[in-house]
Amino acid sequence: MTTAHPVRFDRPRIIDLTLPLASGMDAFPGEPTARFRPFSTHEDGGIEMWHVDLFSQLGTHVDAPAHFLRGGTTSEHLPLDAMIGAAAVIDVPVGPGGTLMAGHLDSDVARIRSAGRVILRSGWERHRGTPQYWEGFSEISPDAARLLVDCGVRFVGIDTPTPSFSHLHEVHRVLLEADVVLAECLVNTAQLAAETYLICLPLPLVGLDGAPARIVALEQPTSAHERKDL
């Protein structure tokens, strides 16, 4: 009689790239924040439930094509296969106020093509919670956006509030016209390896331009302390 041995495997390390949503949280200047209001409480009915008011572009969120394109795809129709899978993590080689040009990505083109998804890591999330967070970050040029599209990228994640102020409409249009899912305001990107496995699940808000999303990365454990038999 043989004795079965438990299967050993490494539990993946989960890195949460999502900014928690809180009532009254910081929002892009001029845009609404979240508001949470009690609907019922344990004291008045024995059940706790809440009204939740959310803005489509609040916190860590995705842009659907409808955000800039009249008649474009809305958030409930965004393809899940574009938002789940391998992603190349690219360190942005320009500082605050600089512009990421297509040439800056030349050495990463093979990785970008292979993964089909990209996270651009600038380190700007360190300013989260301060007024500085909303301006002065590095931007993506239209040519860099076109290079990503030419590489077949289906998802672009950034740790800034928007890919560009200087070319706001053009950069968004380049990406969204190619049905690239754009995720903004990622956090904890410093924890990511050069290659990661992405899971991005936006709320399927019917008919809307975008939606808050829960975005995580799965990676192999980096030490014996993160290994566990199940």
Q: Short description, anyone?
A:
The protein has 230 residues and is α/β, with parallel strands linked by helices.
Structure description:
It is built from five helices and twelve strands. It has a seven-stranded mixed barrel with strand order 4-10-9-7-5-11-12. The chain has a two-stranded antiparallel sheet with strand order 2-3. A two-stranded parallel sheet has the order 6-8.
How would you describe this structure in keywords?
single chain; 230 residues; alpha/beta; Glucose Oxidase, domain 1; seven-stranded mixed β-barrel; two-stranded antiparallel sheet; 5 helices; disordered C terminus
Write the layout of secondary structure elements.
Elements: E1 13-16, E2 35-40, H1 42-45, E3 49-53, E4 61-63, H2 80-83, E5 84-91, E6 99-100, H3 109-115, E7 117-121, E8 139-140, H4 142-150, E9 155-158, H5 168-177, E10 181-184, E11 195-202, E12 210-219
Parallel strand pairs: 5-7, 6-8, 7-9, 9-10
Antiparallel strand pairs: 1-12, 2-3, 4-10, 4-12, 5-11, 11-12
Give the domain tally. 1
CATH-level-4 superfamily name: Putative cyclase
Write the element-wise H/E pattern from the N-terminal end onward: EEHEEHEEHEEHEHEEE
Rg calc: 20 Å
Strands, total number: 12
Secondary-structure arrangement, i.e. CATH architecture: 3-Layer(bba) Sandwich
Strand composition percent: 25-35%
Roughly how much helix do the residues carry, as a percent range?
A: 10-25%
Low-confidence stretches are 223-230
Give the neighbour order of strands across the main sheet.
4-10-9-7-5-11-12
**What integer is the average pLDDT?**
93
Distance between the termini: 24 Å
Predict the CATH topology: Glucose Oxidase, domain 1
Shape, principal axes of CA atoms: globular
